[in-house]
Design goal:
This protein is an alpha+beta fold. It is built from 6 helices and 4 strands, in the order ααβαβαβαβα.
């Protein structure tokens, strides 16, 4: 597949097969994240992989975002940031942690799409609860949860409903 094909095929999967991705596939997702660019190459991210046999980890994720569909994913990648390690723009003090995390997260999602795996960005969760339940070290903040697995039988990417280029292109 070309990159355009991968981008076009990626969608937010909310129903997963019981078949778990291989360890090699999961490792390739993390490698894609590791290679992501970050402001001043600070790489202010950490990743926690929660697999099918990690009952306590799965319960922590589901307690922070209790959705029935989420329980169908065999894996979760909890994407965390370390704000103290992120680059801060000197002009206004803006910490780039969220931008760096977003780039790494999308690298994971695009690599998953290339492998035929489904993912979904989840940012609507209780970060305080997840931090406590996963016993995250001080200074490490959960930013996103990515469920990972094969889409359930019959689940396909819906038609993309995107604004036109004219709607999003700013002109001088």
């Amino acid at each position: 597949m070309t990159l355009t094909d991968i981008i076009s095929s990626r969608f937010s999967c909310r129903s997963y097969s019981s078949a778990a991705p291989s360890e090699a596939d999961m490792a390739s997702l993390l490698e894609a994240a590791r290679l992501a660019p970050s402001a001043c190459n600070r790489q202010p991210w950490r990743f926690m992989v929660i697999g099918p046999d990690d009952t306590a980890g799965r319960e922590a994720v589901l307690a922070s975002y209790p959705r029935e569909w989420l329980a169908t994913a065999p894996y979760y990648i909890v994407v965390c940031g370390v704000p103290a390690e992120a680059w801060v723009r000197p002009h206004d003090g803006h910490n780039h942690i969220d931008i760096d995390i977003a780039i790494a997260t999308e690298h994971i999602c695009l690599q998953a799409a290339e492998l035929g795996l489904g993912t979904c960005w989840i940012c609507h969760f209780d970060p305080a609860r997840l931090t406590v339940d996963l016993a995250l070290p001080h200074g490490i903040v959960p930013k996103a949860i990515i469920p990972v697995g094969y889409p359930a039988e019959g689940v396909k990417a819906p038609a993309k409903n995107r604004k036109t280029l004219d709607e999003i292109l700013l002109k001088r």
